[in-house]
Structure formats: C-alpha cells, structure tokens
Amino acid sequence: MHLDLHSAIRKSKYFGFGVSPSCTGNVRKPEFFAFLAQTKLGAITLSDIPSSTFSWYTGEFYESQSITLELGKVARFGENDHKLLQPTFDAISELISIDGYKDIEFDESDIDIYKSTRTLFKKTNDFHFTFDAGVPNFTFFEKGIHLASDNGQEYYAAEGGEAVVFPNPNVQIGHRTCMLMQPTQIKIVNNQVMKS
C-alpha cells in the first residue's frame, strides 16, 4: 500500500480528499476503499488518465494500492487543527497495528466519490481561466459556464456541471491546468471499485 500524504495549497470544499490514480492494474480494491472511508476524508476522486504523481508510479509499476491524500491546507507548523486529522491518524494507526485491513465492507455513503470528466492542459501561453484561479478545490460550475480559453479554444462546463480541482494556469505548456470532476456512483466489478 502507498499513501502519498500531502497538504493542499488552496482551500477546499473538503478538509481532506484522495486522488486515486488510473493504472493498468487494480489499485482500487473494495477493502482499500473501505479503509479510506474510515479515514473520514471528505471525498475520493477517480482519475481517468495516467499522471506524473508518485501514487500513479507505485500503482502502475508495483501494483500497490496507491492514492494521493490531500490533508488540510498548507500552513505554518502548529496552525492546522490536528483534531480534523485524528480520524485519518486513527485509521492508519489501526491499519498498521493489525497488519492489514479491518473486516469491513465499503459503504459508499461514508465518502463522496467523484469521477474525472476532463483534464485541461495548457496548449499555449494564452491559456487563462475565466474564474479566479484561487477558488477552492471542488468549486462547482453549472452546465454551460465558460471556464477557460486557450488561443481560441473555449472550455465550458459540461452536461451536469463540473467541479474544478487543482486549478493552476501558470504551468508550462503541455502540463495540466486543472482536473474537472462530477459526483458519481460506483460499482464493484472483479474485486475492483469502478465508476458507474
């Protein structure tokens, strides 16, 4: 198992959330997601394309149950409310102490699940968002809202609306400017959590 622990650089609708990488192997076993639900994270996002993250690398090449966890917002030492991290600390401590997963079923109602609808990449230096790039993660935009422009290429919120995660217009050309997400239901197929 690989838990890549981070603190987000921006505010978020959720104090903590996970980004589950898209790998060729099964990095989304139900018992792993049951453990994640026990951490009391607010949400898990299901990526749909490979990425350059450490959790993608360990999932892809070592077949580990891997996820990136964003825990709170970056702050000076001692300024984050550690009480909000206690459920995550407790879940990880119990996992280590019993040398494996607890015998619990994954209950989707314990955590919000999002599917990746699109990832926007910077094609030119003209790329810009039409919203404040400092908005909190999971800010939701209704269908048809103009999200971004890139040298004549226009991006609008899709059918059903989309939430933005990790918006950053100041990346190099060819790099990700944001992930767009929608709430989703999941199903379990061949011992793997999948979006419905």
Overview of the molecule:
15% of the residues lie in helices and 35% in strands. It has 196 residues and is α+β, with helices and mostly antiparallel strands. The chain folds into 2 domains: 2-112 and 184-195, Aminopeptidase, CATH 3.40.630; 120-178, OB fold (Dihydrolipoamide Acetyltransferase, E2P). The protein has an 8-stranded mixed sheet with strand order 1-4-2-3-5-11-10-7, with helices on one face. A 3-stranded antiparallel sheet has the order 6-8-9, with no helix packed on it. Strands 12-13 form a two-stranded antiparallel sheet. A hairpin with a 2-residue loop joins β12 and β13 (192-195). It starts with a strand and ends with a strand.
Summarize the SSE layout with pairings:
Blueprint: E1 2-8, E2 16-20, H1 30-38, E3 43-46, H2 54-62, E4 66-73, H3 86-97, E5 112-121, E6 128-129, E7 139-141, E8 146-150, E9 153-156, E10 162-165, E11 176-183, E12 186-189, E13 192-195
Parallel strand pairs: 1-4, 2-3, 3-5
Antiparallel strand pairs: 2-4, 5-11, 6-8, 7-10, 8-9, 10-11, 12-13
Low-confidence stretches: none
Instruction: Domain count, please report it.
Output: 2
Q: Overall 3D geometry?
A: globular
Question: At CATH's second level, what is the architecture of the largest domain?
Answer: 3-Layer(aba) Sandwich
> Structural class of the helices, strands and pairings?
alpha+beta
> How many angstroms separate the termini?
25 Å
Q: Strand share of the residues?
A: 25-35%
Q: What's the main sheet like?
A: 8 strands, mixed
- SSE string: EEHEHEHEEEEEEEEE
Strands, total number:
13
